[in-house]
Design goal:
Elements (H helix, E strand, L loop, with lengths): L1 E5 L4 E4 L2 E3 L13 E7 L5 E6 L7 E3 L4 H26 L1
Antiparallel strand pairs: 1-2, 1-4, 2-3, 4-5, 5-6
Length: 91
């Protein structure tokens, strides 16, 4: 699974499918996070990019809880999009 999160514009990209403008306020993203990237491979790895140039990227091997909250917003957006498509097909 490939994940990219850019909080400033509400972007959550999962496996190449991006939703932009999501309301991520309730996700608990730390204020100093500029972006998050995750590439599931052997081993799982990712990193958090910070707004300050004085702080280096933080390499991680486990998804933070705020990322899971952002993925839930992505799931909601996808479900809403699919429901709208179904409505157009059936309507």
């Amino acid at each position: 699974m490939r994940i990219i999160i850019i909080p400033v514009d509400g972007t959550v990209n999962k496996d190449g499918r991006a939703y932009i403008g999501l309301d991520l306020v309730s996700c608990g993203i730390p204020a100093d996070v500029h972006a998050f990237q995750w590439e599931e491979s052997e081993p799982n790895k990712g990193h958090v990019e910070f707004k300050s140039a004085l702080i280096q990227n933080l390499e991680i091997v486990e998804l933070p809880s705020w990322v899971n909250a952002c993925l839930a917003k992505w799931d909601e957006a996808k479900a809403s999009e699919e429901a709208a498509k179904q409505g157009n097909i059936n309507g």
